[in-house]
Write the structure tokens for this entry.
Amino acid sequence: MIWTAGFRTAVIDPREKLQFGEPRGFADQTVSQLLQMAGGGDAFRVRLTNRYGRTPLVIGAATVRTAHQRTPLPLTFDGAARFVIAAGAEAVSDPVDVPVAAGSDIVLNLYFPERTDLATYSHRPAEIARIVAGDQTAARPFAGIERAEARYFVSGVDVPAPDHRMIGAAFGDSWFEGVGTTPGAKQRSVDFLNRRLRNGWIVNLGISGNRLLRDGVGEAALARFEREVLSIPALTHVLVSFGINDLILPDMLGEPAVSAGDLIAGYIELAERAHLAGLRILVSTIGPFAGYTPETRMPELLAVRREVNDWIRTARYFDGVFDVARAVADPRFPDYIHRDLDSGDGLHLNEVGTEVMADTVDIRDLTL
């Protein structure tokens, strides 16, 4: 059997210089996390990660529950209910022979009996993790819940690869991950896009703050592309949305500015690597961000954005372009997000805007 990605979440190092979430560890606590499946199948298996941990991760118990089950099921790894994931390693569970549907949720409960290192985590996933003292992996519901917008020590859920289905990866930054939308509401751009699909699905590999060219908030796209995208069996398409953070973060981090030529070279490299792997690649234009900050270099940054966007619209390296920049811009001031689509920070889309973003993708570009 070939397993493919039914759900993915991109993780970051909790010790990075620039933090948009709150890194933390656990001790004698259970963490319950809701994982929304992009794709489904007759069985599934869970992927856990200690990629950025510096010590072994001890998991005392793990359970899962699908939408059709009242009682959580034990989750085992090589037959063991209690297991250890070495520092820097990942682990894949034994298969759970229970059907799971696309668009449905899996509840994953992990019990940490010993003090963990800072968790390898997804920092702005627009989902809420619930944390409670002791081993409550078999409990439903929890009592005395602490809540956090993050995912901890989980990187994905696999399902059997279907025949003749499009399977895509949304590879990008916060405009994919879902910043600006209500946590738990499932109103991210990738959620809206999946609702339009009839012959496949797209998993979400967005990282808020992520860049195409440089590390900083997560490893750079060019560095994580092989591990997170090309490693997915049966993948057919990759959708790319980067650029804003490449432009606005260098000043915050004391780095040299990024030029239009730098970004264009990065896009070309991604396209070549995708095509070499047999994938079709769709690329988004860089969205408006003039309302984000009174950055003194803003005119220069916006000029680079316009130059790169003009190139993306006419380049022949891609199998499709979705022009988010034009779709969400204020027609009078195109460097600004339209006020009806702005989350309020001048940088991210609200839930109306994320649907507009999803609608810019031509479904015909996602056919096999």
